């Protein structure tokens, strides 16, 4: 991070430390600055701010800010800590020494979402994240949110988190990755990431539970029996797998540049086919039809961004130029269409 004068601050820069005046936080860490924010800081007499620069991000991949006006689902600092820990886990040669890291991330993710009643599923403006670690962490976050929503016991959620974090570890072993690996049942790389992940983990039964290892092996089975390898179906597939697949597919779709709306629509379309409908509906009850970050055109011609789910799944709360508007019959404002951003 670097400290710069307010006169050198430009829209798009990311705040690296909370900015406060008289104990009131004006802008918090992780916020992406807009021209309006900069004016506000000047008005409050802020002279210097800490902003992130690219070197702050361990992984050099592109800066990916999709929904800058929305808060991240977890603070960037925390997310980066998980990424750093996960980098140690993903190094399979050291996995037998890094089970402690795996325990720590799992527990931390679990605790982070335990108390949140109102989860804004905006995972997707994490900055500078290397694809596989971000995908694994995002899968774990979504799985955890579903599990907590269902009041599953900690022992279950903990296994689920580990399975989610490790599910694609095979890609790191083979050095290649298919991002959206749901439509390619005959793809050699997809098959081999399942097998090599399983082979690497199966001798670690003293550190990683059998359920987690089996979940990694089965994560490409499908609810309707059309998966790869074992062709298991329905409740022959462990719930750990049926839940993690929801997070896995949702994040992989976002990574493949689908909008959150397209991702949730895909899950709904595949509900009862690829995915267990019960867990699809649990995620749907959290996100609504228009997940956070969806750009929409309203019936009055305004363009808005979905901030969070409203009382009904189809009437979200939206942001129109900084103003929060509740859609639905009370306001007479409705979504006319989704804009592909
Ligand atoms: Fe996979
Ligand atoms: Fe995956």
UniProtKB/TrEMBL annotation:
Q: Show the PROSITE patterns listed in the entry.
A: HD_GYP (PS51832)
For this protein, the record's SMART domains field holds: HDc
- Start and end of every HD-GYP domain? 110-299
- Entry's SUPFAM superfamilies? HD-domain/PDEase-like
| Any Pfam family | HD_5
Please state what the protein is called. Answer: HD domain-containing protein
Tell me what organism the protein belongs to: Geotoga petraea
The major lineage groups are: Bacteria, Thermotogati, Thermotogota, Thermotogae, Petrotogales
């Amino acid at each position: 991070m670097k400290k710069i004068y307010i006169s050198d601050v430009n829209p798009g820069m990311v705040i690296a430390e909370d900015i406060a005046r008289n104990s009131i936080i004006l802008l918090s860490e992780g916020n992406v600055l807009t021209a309006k924010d900069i004016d506000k800081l000047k008005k409050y007499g802020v002279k210097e701010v800490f902003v992130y620069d690219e070197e702050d991000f361990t992984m050099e991949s592109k800066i990916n800010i999709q929904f800058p006006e929305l808060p991240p689902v977890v603070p960037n600092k925390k997310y980066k800590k998980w990424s750093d820990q996960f980098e140690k886990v993903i190094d399979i040669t050291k996995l037998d020494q890094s089970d402690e890291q795996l325990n720590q991330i799992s527990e931390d993710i679990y605790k982070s979402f335990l108390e949140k009643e109102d989860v804004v599923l905006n995972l997707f403006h994490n900055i500078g994240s290397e694809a596989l670690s971000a995908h694994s962490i995002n899968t774990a976050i979504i799985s955890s949110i579903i599990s907590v929503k269902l009041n599953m016991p900690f022992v279950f959620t903990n296994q689920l988190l580990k399975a989610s974090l490790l599910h694609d570890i095979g890609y790191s072993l083979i050095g290649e990755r298919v991002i959206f690996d749901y439509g390619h049942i005959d793809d050699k790389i997809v098959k081999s990431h399942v097998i090599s992940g399983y082979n690497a983990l199966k001798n670690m039964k003293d550190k990683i539970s059998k359920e987690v290892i089996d979940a990694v092996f089965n994560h490409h089975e499908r609810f309707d029996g059309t998966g790869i390898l074992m062709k298991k179906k329905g409740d022959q597939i462990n719930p750990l797998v049926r839940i993690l697949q929801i997070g896995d597919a949702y994040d992989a779709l976002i990574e493949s540049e689908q909008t959150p709306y397209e991702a949730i629509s895909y899950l709904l379309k595949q509900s009862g086919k690829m995915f267990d409908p019960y867990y699809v509906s649990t995620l749907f009850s959290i996100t609504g039809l228009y997940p956070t970050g969806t750009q929409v055109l309203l019936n009055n011609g305004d363009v808005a961004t979905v901030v969070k789910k409203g009382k009904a799944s189809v009437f979200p709360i939206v942001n129109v130029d900084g103003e929060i508007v509740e859609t639905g019959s009370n306001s007479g404002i409705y979504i006319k269409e989704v804009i592909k951003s």
